[in-house]
Amino acid sequence: MPLIPDVDRHLQALEFSQKQVDRLVRQHPDYFPIYTVHGKWHHEGELWTDWTGGFLAGMMWQFALRTGSQPWHERAEHYSRLLEHRKFDRNVHDLGFIFLNTYLPWYQATGDRELREVLITAGRTLSLRFQHTGHYLCSFIGPQSLFIDIMMNVPLIFYAAKETGDDALYRIASEHCRTTRDRLVREDGSTAHEGLFDVETGAFIGQSTHQGLRPDSRWARGLAWSLYGFSKVYGLTGEQEFLDVAEQNAEFWVSHLPHDKVPYWDFDADLTAPLPWGPQKDSSAAAIAASGLLDLATQTTVPERAIVYRNTAMVMIDVLLDPEYLAQNTAGWEGILKHGVYHTKKGLGVDESVMWGEYFFVEALTKILSREP
Ligand code: GLY
């Protein structure tokens, strides 16, 4: 049986989210933070890599398009413009995160062809990371490295390929997805964070990790990126092989969640170890997977799976609305969702609000409300 959403509770959470973002932009104009420190956004901490600007501006688009608010629309445009120069950025693999959450909704809302050009340029820039010997888009670490996270960015290349009819772009994006499936997605549907390749021969060396516990462990956010990324790619290509991977990931996800449906930062975390290695949750992984599962529920051709995906997403969002996760009753906390994690080993943004957790939480709530009759 599909679960019935609690519309009032969802609306209240979105209003709280708008309030938190409003306060952030008033306190720190034109600033794109990544994670909080003790619940406060402004910080001098290490970025590791600069990949999250599209999430703050993307929330503004979600607010503007749901409510029709002109002030949010103006803010969304302003913050998106601040990101435009990144369309030429060859240092990161994250251009999908930056442009698909900003210029795509902006273009879809206005039909302004200049915005479409920005998306196409960013897609072409991202495609330059393609390694022709190993058949993958390399991560910001270097040409030898493939990250699972790139599955959420490769849709930008498919988008550019479809808009321009450029078959070479389409091939690059498809080959990247197949290499990711073959090298990072395991038989049980779990994923590795990174794959390492010999850059001369393209030979696969092995699985590795930066943000997960171990090379052979199941980093929760990586699995969420894969599930949602393959689902997005299926949405753009209609290729069954990519839907199959998203469903494999979803199978692992739904059958390995802890009792409260919010994963620990790594499915292999030793829960007897002290924080952050032990029982540290990652609310951001739950928000990403919830948003992805809502889409996957509309894509699968198996009705029983559709119910499981949607219900799991609804329960995860419901749990995130609890004061344990939603910061509404936490005095002085500037983020929306507590108990997110950025980089455990580096000690960055551990047990904090993280900007992508905020974005996907808002996106999932907006999807649920927009799909209600
Ligand atoms: N670097 C992407 C992530 O932290 O998930």
Summarize the structure.
By secondary structure, the protein is mainly alpha-helical. It has a single domain (7-370), classed as Alpha/alpha barrel (Glycosyltransferase), CATH 1.50.10.10.
Written description of the protein model:
The protein is mainly α and 373 residues long. It has one domain (7-370): Glycosyltransferase (Alpha/alpha barrel), CATH 1.50.10.10. The protein has helices at 7-27, 53-67, 70-83, 95-99, 103-110, 113-127, 155-164, 167-184, 220-237, 240-256, 283-299, 303-320, 355-370, and strands spanning 130-131, 136-137, 145-147, 194-197, 204-208, 340-343, 348-352. A three-stranded antiparallel β-sheet has the order 3-4-5, covered by helices on one side. A hairpin with a 4-residue loop joins strand 6 (340-343) and strand 7. It starts with 6 loop residues before the first helix and ends with a helix. 54% of the residues are buried. Glycine binds at residues 51, 149, 211, 221, 342.
Keywords:
single chain; 373 residues; three-stranded antiparallel sheet; two-stranded antiparallel sheet; 13 helices; binds glycine; mainly alpha
Number of domains: 1
Stretches with pLDDT under 50, minimum 5 residues = none
So what's the CATH class? Mainly Alpha
Mean pLDDT over the residues: 96
Biggest beta sheet attributes? 3 strands, antiparallel
Structural class: mainly alpha
- What ligand molecules are bound, each kind once? glycine
Strand order of the largest sheet: 3-4-5
